[in-house]
Amino acid sequence: MTSGIKIIAICGLSFTIGVVLTAIHCDFTNNTVLQENRREPVVSTLYFGSHGDKQHDDDHKSTEIGPRKILLDCGGNMASTVELFRETYPDGKQFIIHSFEIDERLAPYFSPYEKHYLHCPVGVASEDGNMTAFTESAWAPEKGKNNGRDMQWGGGTLYVDKKELTDTDTGGRRKLSHRKQIPVVDVSKWIQENTRKEDYVIFKLDVEGAEFRILEKMLKDGTFAWIDKYYGEYHKNQPVGLSRSAMSHIIENVKTKGRKMFDWGAESRNYADFATIHPIQVPDSAPGEAGKTYNKCNGDNNLAITVNVGMTRKQAVRVLTTLKSYKIEIPVTVFVFSAFAEEWPELVKAWAKDYTIGLRGNHPYPAGHFEKMSPNWIREAVVSSEMRLQELNLKPMFYSPDEDGGSVKEQLKSIGFRIIKPSVNFPPKSEPLLTVQNYYRFRDVERIPKALRIISEKLQTSDGGILCLDTDLPDTYMNLVFLLDYLVENSDYHLVSLNQCLD
User: Are 496 and 297 in contact (CB under 8 A)?
Assistant: First the structure.
C-alpha cells in the first residue's frame, strides 16, 4: 500500500480485537496460549466490509488530497467506538474511520456509518500473519454466564488461558467456544504505509493485552511520529506471555518516547478528556443560571410561548408557518430534537431567523426511560444534541427535556444549559386525554373552545408563565389562530420572549 491515510487508531473494547504478536507455542506452565504466526494471510487484508471498496481505498490514498483526519479503531466490537466518536468527538463526522474486528458476526453493526472502512475478520498485531480468533458463541438461554455475570460482549480475543483453550464445548469462563483462523496485520507497518505525517491521526488501542507487543513494535519503528493522539487501555492480567515488569517497562517507554495515553471506554460512553474537549458553549452573557429550572416569567401576567417540535416535519411546518403568518409578530422559542435538525437542517436554520432555537434532546425516548439511564449515556445524548445544532452554526442555551431527573439536570448544568419546564402544556402531560369531559368525543369546531378553556384555566392557575405547544398533536395547529386571538385581544397576558423570563 502506498503512503496515504493517517489513521486514528481506536483499538478494541475489552474482549474484542485480534492482535497477533509472536511465535507459535503453548506455554501451559504460565497458563498462556500463543499462536503460530504464519507469513501468508488467510484472506486479503485490503479494505472490505462496510463502505470498503477498492476504489474508495485508492481515492483516500491519493497524493493530490490534503491532510485528512483519520481514526483507527482496533477492536470495533459492536461499532460502539464508531458511534461514540461520530456523536461526540469534535469534527467526528469529518474523520475517515478504519475498524478492525475479529468477529465477522458483528459486521452488520458498522453498516449505518459513512466514511468508514471495516476490516473483518481481521486482527491487529506486531507482525503480519494468521491467528486463531477465540470469539463468543451466539447467545442462547442455556449459554450460561460470561465470567460469572450476564454479559454478551461479542467479539473475542487472540489470547486465552489453558482452560479456555481446552474447553471447546463452552469456551470456558468467557464462553469463547467459537474458533476460527483469521488474518492479522502489523499495525505499526500498516500505519506508516497508509497514512502521512501531515494527516491528523487518532490511535485507540484496547486489545486485551496484545497492546504490549504492538506498542513495543511501534516504539521500535518510530510509528508514534505518525500518531497525533493515543487512546487505549492496558490489560496486565491477560495471558500474553509477558511478565508484569515487562509490561510496566513498555508502558513507561510509551509515556516517555511515544504519546500520552488517554483512557477510552466506548462501552461506558466515556473517554478521559471528554469534559476537557467539551467546554461550556453558552455565553456568559446569557440570561439565567446554568442548570436552573425555569417555569415562570418575571413580572405580572408575562407569558412566553414555546413550541415543541416532534419528528414529523409536516406537522411542525404547519404550526410554525401559521405562527409566522399571524397578524402580529409573536416571540416564540422552538425546541427541536437534534435528530430532526440533522434530517431537516435548512428548515431549522430558516426557523432560527424568526425564532429562538432550543433543544429538547437528541431524539425521542420511550416515556420514563431517559432519566433512568446512566449519567454517561445522558451526557452523550446532551452533548451530541448540542453539537448537531452547533454544526448548523446555532448555539442553543435553552434545553427543555421531556424528562428532567437528577442525572439529566446534572448533565445540562455541566455544559451551561438553562432548563425550561413549561408551567402549561398543550396537550397536558399529567391528565388523561385532556379532560373537559372527554375531549375527543367532540367535533373539531367543538374541541377548539374546549382546548382554549383547558389552556386558559391552566394559565390562570399558574399565573401566566411558559406555555408549550406540541406539534405532534394535530389539534395544536387547529387551535393556534384562535388561541393567539384570545391571548392578544381578550387576555391580560403580555407575550414576551423566553429570555425575559430568565432575567
Answer: yes
Bridge-partner residues for 399, per DSSP?
359, 419
- As a whole number of angstroms, the distance between CA 164 and CA 151 comes to 17
Which CATH number characterizes residue 393's domain?
Answer: 3.20.20.370
Q: Do residues 20 and 107 lie in contact, with contact meaning Cβ atoms separated by under 8 Å?
A: no
Task: Say what the pTM is.
Answer: 0.84
CA–CA distance, 436 with 122 (Å, rounded to integer): 64
Q: Is residue 287 in some structural domain?
A: no
C-alpha cell at 57: 481505498
Cα Rg for the chain, rounded, in angstroms?
28
Give me the domain span that covers residue 323: 293-502
Mean pLDDT, 10 residues at a time, the chain of 503 residues: 42 37 30 34 38 46 74 93 97 96 93 95 95 88 82 84 88 86 96 97 90 96 98 90 94 96 94 95 90 87 95 97 96 97 98 97 93 94 97 96 88 95 87 68 86 90 89 93 97 93 83
Q: Are 205 and 11 in contact (CB under 8 A)?
A: yes
Look at residue 371 and tell me if it is in a domain. Answer: yes
Tell me the one-letter amino acid at 57. Answer: D
**How distant is the alpha carbon of residue 66 from its chain centre?**
28
Both 260 and 408 in one domain: the answer is no
